Amino acid sequence: MIVILKKNPDQQQLDRLRSWLEERHIAIHPTVGVNQTIWGLVGDTSHLDINLIASLDIVDDVKRVQEPYKNANRKFHPADTVVKVGSTTVGGGSLTLIAGPCSVESEEQICTIAQQVKASGATMLRGGAFKPRTSPYSFQGLRNEGIRLLSIAKKVTGLPIVTEIMDASQLDCFDDVDVIQVGARNMQNFELLKVLGELRKPILLKRGLSATYEELLMSAEYIMAGGNENVILCERGVRTFETYTRNTMDVTAVPVLKQLSHLPVLVDPSHAAGKYKLVPPLAKAALAAGADGLIIEVHNDPEHALCDGPQSLRPEVFDKLAGDLRAIHELVHR
Known about the structure:
Its EC number is 2.5.1.54. By secondary structure, the chain is α/β, with parallel strands linked by helices.
């Protein structure tokens, strides 16, 4: 349920309404706009008399929200959410470019790539330390050492770092991580999402391999219900009957998620395509569809990469692409 308040409501009446709702175990999530204030009511609102609330002098309108996701719902929060990450932001018209290797392999590798992508205009550095792999015999990442090396690259370049968590037990290693990524396989790891909801650190939530839009938003709801509203959605391709590409990038997800939710939306064309030649056109399509930014894999020696070399761009290719993406972003936001 959402309660739209009149402009400059009487404070005493406002306090009485708040107390009345809290006595009924209803949490209030206020959104203060220029012309109106919206209260999003979270909890069991089925027993609330909508007509009684609407009759109050301070209330302009009351509406029930049918969707099961409340905090992530645009009806609760009409304005786009902007997530602050260090000195940069995600959403609100800014262009977010997250770039780096699939896996951290060495200090020289991650620092070299970090400097190269920063020179091309990347706003954040990505790199896998804990790697969820289909095969138990594949490279599993450098784990704690990988995060230490990412922290060195962060000191060298000043770029905020983004890396994936696989289990809540790893959280102690993530103190220096600026954005915690939840991968497709963990999108519905609800116990992990609950723990991340207790943080106030930005969470990059990737869509599952076969997840619907509502399922993605319900996973975001798990995090936000815990009090962490710093959630960034990410479309990374879904599994279809097509086998030519690694996954199928769902461009439709961008405008649909923008319509349903106020959260920023990024796209990962690298995991969607699985082939580096397809990454630039997919990245451009994502921005043209209204995405707030991209997360792209970049490696200075893809042929010898320990993970996902075939989908990684060389730094010089990323540099050219970044220039094209800035031009598209400027055109879309005119």
